[in-house]
Automatic annotation (TrEMBL):
Keywords: Cobalt, Cytoplasm, Magnesium, Metal-binding, NAD, NADP, Oxidoreductase, Pyridoxine biosynthesis, Zinc
Family stated for the protein in its record: Belongs to the PdxA family.
Function: Catalyzes the NAD(P)-dependent oxidation of 4-(phosphooxy)-L-threonine (HTP) into 2-amino-3-oxo-4-(phosphooxy)butyric acid which spontaneously decarboxylates to form 3-amino-2-oxopropyl phosphate (AHAP).
Organism superkingdom: Bacteria
Locations listed in the record: Cytoplasm
Provenance organism: Azonexus hydrophilus
Cofactor(s) of this protein: Zn(2+); Mg(2+); Co(2+)
Pathway in which this enzyme or protein is active: Cofactor biosynthesis; pyridoxine 5'-phosphate biosynthesis; pyridoxine 5'-phosphate from D-erythrose 4-phosphate: step 4/5
InterPro entries registered for this protein in UniProt: PdxA, PdxA_fam
Record-given protein name: 4-hydroxythreonine-4-phosphate dehydrogenase
EC number: 1.1.1.262
Amino acid sequence: MTAPVIAVTSGEPAGIGPELCLELAGWSGEGRPVVLGDRELLAQRAAMLGLDIVLRDYLPAVPAAPGTLDIIHLPLAKPAEASILDAANGPYVLALLDRALAGCQSGEFAAMATAPVHKGVINDAGVAFTGHTEYLADKTDTPLVVMMLAGDTERGPLRVALATTHLPLKDVPAAITGELLERTLRIVDADLSGKYGIAEPRILVAGLNPHAGEGGYLGREEIDIIEPALARLRGEGLQLSGPHPADTMFTPPVLAGGDAVLAMYHDQGLTALKYATFGNGINVTLGLPIIRTSVDHGTALALAGTGQADAGSLFAAVSEAARMAQRATARKQA
């Protein structure tokens, strides 16, 4: 089977994204990464870090040799310096995403993996931007997508999806509706089956309140919203358990009963996930018509240009995107 081509967007030019992408030179893992970014930026960052890397225009028919990085050049609006943000380059960051998405939609790329972006500088450029996930959903006319983070632990893979993402905590209870939970869980179930190859996914669902509401004494969302939604979906054949108290849901005996977790809000799920997998964790966008993975960290401006950034999460994102693409190809050929 031909190695699937993974478009890797180099992200915020002032952050660590460009130098993480340089670590893909001569990649020998799963898939074939192609970095999207400004050639001069990548060359300057390589020189700053003392890396002897050949930057080569992507040639589909010719694999990259050791020490060579396949790139697709997209120009910066202004020269970029490590750790110094410039709103002028906000449109450049979005152009990387648009080029990767177009290639995935056309079949040029099998999937995309994204280095971190800085939401603030894109908004400073005059573009309303809340994140990769929402941007790609809008660009593909996808009404609902689900953020899931995943990583390997000593007890096996840990996957945590989110019912709500970047919301202030005070807004979360009103956002948790039966309709949202049903739509979200259907997406998680479908992609665990389709993109991960899990025949009958088992999903652990968290409660919203402490002790999952303590029978209503600490909140009624579990009784009035979450439990009825789970009952309806179990009637459709989904394998769901919960609502589980969040403070014990990530213990080994509970996790052993599921293939993924659905948390009600960002920090409820991702605190545990990042504690267990930081350095090799990734972000996967479920529900999109394309395959998209990402690193599980930010731009780390303070580390940009120092050579201290860890490329483990990017490596994991590229590898997982390749495995998903291979499964998709196998399904089509079956």
